[in-house]
Each structure stands twice: as structure tokens, then as C-alpha cells.
Amino acid sequence: MDQRRAFSRSGLNKIARNLQRTINSEEGHYNPGSGNYDANVLMVALRKKGKNVDWYDARRGVAGINLESGTLKGIVVHTVPPGEKGGKSGGHWSAVRRINGVWYDLDSYLDDEQPFGNSEEVREYLGSVLNNGGHLLLVNNNLLGNSRGSNSSGRLFVLIAVIS
Hints:
Layout: H1 9-22, E1 30-31, E2 36-37, H2 39-48, E3 52-55, E4 72-79, E5 92-99, E6 102-105, E7 114-115, H3 119-131, E8 135-140
Antiparallel strand pairs: 1-2, 3-8, 4-5, 4-8, 5-6, 6-7
Protein name: ubiquitinyl hydrolase 1
EC number: 3.4.19.12
Organism: Senna tora
């Protein structure tokens, strides 16, 4: 797998501090001790790598995500603890990505990447995430692209929960 450290903790912390200054907010975008970052930090970091990132509107359901199109690089997934809506405790970030025509769950909590059997299994998983208060970020390989599709080549730079 071509997962690698694409961002340093100090780089992500800098993005988070800049976000706080830009919006003149006391609200934190990260926990400097744990390395947990919110969606805004992830989106800025991915855009710095030339990726287009769209926060997916959960009201559309998973039917609005075109997994077969040629533009989607992957999906950053935010899950929340059972019984909690909105992810106030921080939740967990992971990713789903298609590699050589096969979709994989790239969750750092798993021992190894887990392949999905087909696109319908991917949709069921993503639907479960949305139904349980989670969120999806659609990641396209370029800043000008349409992130409603998918692609089996290229890199998805994923930030997983804690970057050490």
C-alpha cells in the first residue's frame, strides 16, 4: 500500500493555529497533545497537496456518491462513538479508497486494510457512517475536479486519527 506520512504533526499544528487566527476563534481545531485534528485542518492539508476536498451533504444519502466515476480518489470518513451525534468527543478519522478496482477500508484501528466485496458494500458502510452521525469528505486528485466519482490510480493522502 502506498500509505505514507504525508504531513508532520508540526505542519498540521501550524495549519490549525492559522485557522484559529484567520477566523479569530477561540475554538480549537486540534488537540496538540493527542494529534487529533478537525475536518477544517484535514481539508486545508489535503488542499495543500493539490487535492479537492468536498464535505459531503449527508442529506443526499450515499446514492449521491458516484463510486464508478473516474474522478474520486477516496473518501475520508469521520465516525463518532455509539450514541453520540455530531462527534463532540472528536471521533475517529479513517479512509476508504479504490486501488486497482477494489475498494478498501484503510482504518488504522484494523490490523490490515480490509477489501470490500463490491461497490454496494462500500455504500452500505458509508450509509452506516452517515446514519450514525458520521461525516464524509470526498477527495479528488486535483483542485479543479469534480469529486463525485472514483479513480483507481494516484495517491490519497490520508490523515488517520493520531499522527505521531
